[in-house]
Amino acid sequence: MLEQGKSKFMEVNENGQTCRMFAEPVGVHDWYLVLTATERGISEPLYQNLLITRIIFFLLLALSGMCILYGARLMKRNSRALLRFAYYDQLTGSYNMVKFSHMLEETIASTRDFSLVAMNIRKFKFINETFGDEVANQLLCYVKKVLDEAVFEGEFFCRETADKFYILMRTSDENLVQRRLEEITEHIRDFFLHYNRQYRMMIYAGVVTGAEINGSFVKREELMSHVMFALDRAKKRQQDDFSGPVYSSV
User: Fold this and answer.
1) What are the extents of the domains in the chain?
2) Which of 25, 33, 69, 206 has a 20 to 30 A CA-CA distance from 190?
3) 88: DSSP letter
4) Which letter does DSSP use for residue 95 in this model?
5) How far apart are CA 86 and CA 109, in angstroms?
6) Predicted local distance difference test score (pLDDT) of residue 82
7) Measured between alpha carbons, how far is 247 from 228 in angstroms, rounded to an integer?
8) pLDDT at 165
């Protein structure tokens, strides 16, 4: 029952369904403004809002997961690109001097059974000017391919600049090193057969073997200096063919 002039909240059960009612006097005669709603009518918008909130939450969670996954893949790809830029020659795909130097220092610290080879193509500038940059670059990539097939397990090589390559062989046997370098040279010379040219490349090399190292410790820089000295002596011999590498002692 409504008390005259007072607001009232009521519940009415009709056919098993609960309705909530609110009566508010309007101040005119004995009229009341009555608002009514079922329980379902009151709770359904709340359920809908909760459902929408849950959907939005899971969508945001899925989006965040996708962003994290994409970011991780992007970082991994960038890391590989940076690593390749830092340690690999951009033209041939071989190691560069930075990577080679790290690996050489590890080798020097662990064994003396090795040979460090510096190899160069004689008159590479002439080849570049005569046959063009494209052929010269293909030649360098071909040298890399030959060295890939020539090195054994645990051995490695790099391209420093232009036509200069360094090779670390896991042997200090000078005769074995010479035979292997002769084979490498012959395979490199096959490059111009693909172009039906009669040009015969001349290749020279300098070598330092681990067995020649005096003392228990040697710096990488010192080793590189001696192999460059050997390479320079080989260049000055001006041989017409690869008659063998020039050795230098440390």
Assistant:
1) 8-42, 97-247
2) 206
3) B
4) B
5) 23
6) 62
7) 10
8) 96
Quote the CA–CA distance of 210 and 228 in Å, as a whole number.
Answer: 15
152 token code pair = 């054994």
Within 13 Å and on the Cβ side, how many CA atoms surround 89? Answer: 22
Residues of the chain with pLDDT under 50: 240, 250
Cβ distance 199 to 224 under 8 Å?
A: no
Q: What CATH class is the domain 97-247?
A: alpha beta
Q: Are 97 and 160 in contact (CB under 8 A)?
A: yes
Report pTM: 0.67
DSSP code of residue 210: G
Q: Can you point out the beta strands (E) in the chain?
A: 8-14, 17-25, 32-38, 115-121, 156-159, 165-169, 203-209, 246-247
- Give pLDDT, residue 48: 77
Tokens 């820089």 belong to 221
Amino acid (one-letter) located at 46: L
